[in-house]
Specification:
single chain; alpha+beta; 5-stranded mixed beta sheet; 4-stranded antiparallel beta sheet; 6 helices; 19 strands; extended; disordered N terminus
C-alpha cells in the first residue's frame, strides 16, 4: 500500500500548483551546479513573457521574500507561453547568492502580475533555516498604487525623472506599526530592481490604515519602460509600471552642436586663410579706389596739379582701349580733316 501511494505521489514532486492559477513542473527536484533541468508550466496567460530563476531562502508557501535579489539573475531564462498558456524551457542550475531552501521561481515580466514556485534543491549548496516571521503588525496594501507628478523642462533636457509613489496600507496584525521602513525598487525592463530603504514617519494601529507617499527618482537621462516595486518585511506588496519619455532636449542639443561647431570652425578657417594669403599687385585698384580720382576730389589740390596727376587715357568703362576717345589727343569733338590741301576745304578768292 505504501509503495502504491509513493507511485501516485511521485509525479507530484517538484510541482507547484495554484488554485485556478499558473503551475510549474520540474524534470528534477535536485541537481548540482553545472547541470540543467527542464521547467514546464501551464495555466499561464497566453503569449505571456515569463522569467525563470533559481532563488534561495524561499518556499512556495511564502514565495520569494527577498525578491529577485536572492535569485541567480545572471543565469535566468526568459520564455513565452503558447496560445494555451503552456511553456517548456531548459534552465541551467546555478547557486543562488543566499542559502537554500531554494525554489524555481517563475513570474510574468509584463502585463498582469502572476507567479509560481516549485521546490528545488541545489546539490552542494548551503542550507539554512528561513528567517523567522515576526508576529505583531502586518501591513498590507489596500488600494492600487499610483505615481503622482510629471516631468518638466529640465527633465526634457536630461534631468532625473521624479515621481511620488502613493498608496494606502492597512495594519492586519495585532500590534501597532511605528515608523515602518519600506523598500522602493526601480527596475528597467527585465532587470532586477534596485532597492532603496525609505522610512515613513507615523504609527498605524491594529485595524487602522494610512496613506503613504514615498519619493521615487531615476538616474539622469533615464527613459523607457520602468517598474516601481514596493516591499515591506521582505515581501513585495505592489508593483507599478512607469513609462519614462525620452529626453529629446539632449538630442536637440547634440544636433545643434553637430551643426554649429563645424560651421564656426569653417568660418574661422576661412578668416585665417583670407588673412595669410598673398595680396595681388595693385590691390588698391581692385578695391574700386583709383588714385587719379582721389587726387581730383581732394579739396586742397590745385586743378593744374590734379591734371598732371591724371592719366592721359580716359577711364570710361564703356570704351575699349582701341576705341577710347582719349587716345586721339584728348579731343572729344567729331573727327575732321585739318589738311590745307583738302579738296573739300573752301578758299577765299584773292588770298595770297
Amino acid at each position: 500500500m505504501v509503495a502504491v501511494l509513493a507511485l501516485l505521489l511521485g509525479p507530484l514532486a517538484g510541482t507547484a500548483v495554484a488554485a485556478d492559477g499558473p503551475s510549474v513542473r520540474l524534470s528534477k527536484s535536485q541537481a548540482g551546479t553545472g547541470g540543467s533541468i527542464t521547467v514546464s508550466g501551464s495555466g499561464w496567460r497566453a503569449r505571456a513573457l515569463l522569467m525563470i530563476l533559481v532563488c534561495g531562502q524561499a518556499v512556495p508557501s511564502r514565495g520569494v521574500p527577498g525578491g529577485t535579489n536572492s535569485c541567480a539573475n545572471a543565469d535566468g531564462r526568459a520564455v513565452t507561453t503558447d496560445s494555451k498558456g503552456r511553456f517548456s524551457k531548459k534552465l541551467p542550475v546555478t547557486e543562488p547568492p543566499v542559502p537554500c531552501p531554494c525554489v524555481v521561481h517563475v513570474a510574468t515580466v509584463t502585463g498582469a502580475k502572476a507567479e509560481a514556485d516549485a521546490i528545488f534543491q541545489v546539490a552542494g549548496h548551503a542550507v539554512e533555516p528561513l528567517p523567522a516571521v515576526t508576529d505583531g503588525g502586518q501591513l498590507s496594501v489596500l488600494t492600487d498604487t499610483r505615481l503622482d507628478g510629471s516631468g518638466g523642462l529640465l527633465t526634457w533636457f536630461g534631468a532625473p525623472p521624479a515621481r511620488t509613489l502613493v498608496f494606502t496600507v492597512g495594519n492586519l496584525g495585532t500590534s501597532a506599526v511605528k515608523n515602518p521602513v519600506f523598500q522602493v525598487g526601480t527596475a528597467h525592463g527585465v532587470f532586477a530592481p534596485q532597492w532603496e530603504d525609505q522610512q515613513w514617519r507615523g504609527m498605524i494601529r491594529p485595524g487602522g490604515k494610512a496613506r503613504i507617499e514615498l519619493p521615487v527618482e531615476l538616474t539622469a537621462g533615464a527613459h523607457g519602460a520602468y517598474t516601481v516595486s514596493l516591499k515591506y518585511g521582505g515581501k513585495v506588496l505592489a508593483e507599478q509600471p512607469w513609462g519614462v519619455g525620452r529626453p529629446w532636449g539632449v538630442t536637440l542639443f547634440w544636433v545643434l552642436v553637430c551643426l554649429v561647431v563645424p560651421a564656426a570652425l569653417f568660418r574661422i578657417g576661412m578668416a585665417v586663410v583670407d588673412r595669410v594669403r598673398p595680396r595681388p599687385a595693385g590691390g588698391l585698384r581692385h578695391r574700386g579706389l583709383r588714385l587719379p580720382e582721389l587726387a581730383l576730389r581732394l579739396p586742397g589740390l590745385k586743378p593744374s596739379t590734379a591734371a598732371h596727376a591724371a592719366p592721359a587715357t580716359s577711364t570710361l568703362p564703356w570704351f575699349t582701349p582701341d576705341a577710347d576717345p582719349g587716345a586721339a589727343g584728348g579731343r572729344l569733338s567729331a573727327p575732321h580733316d585739318d589738311s590745307p590741301t583738302s579738296p573739300t576745304t573752301p578758299t577765299r578768292e584773292g588770298s595770297t
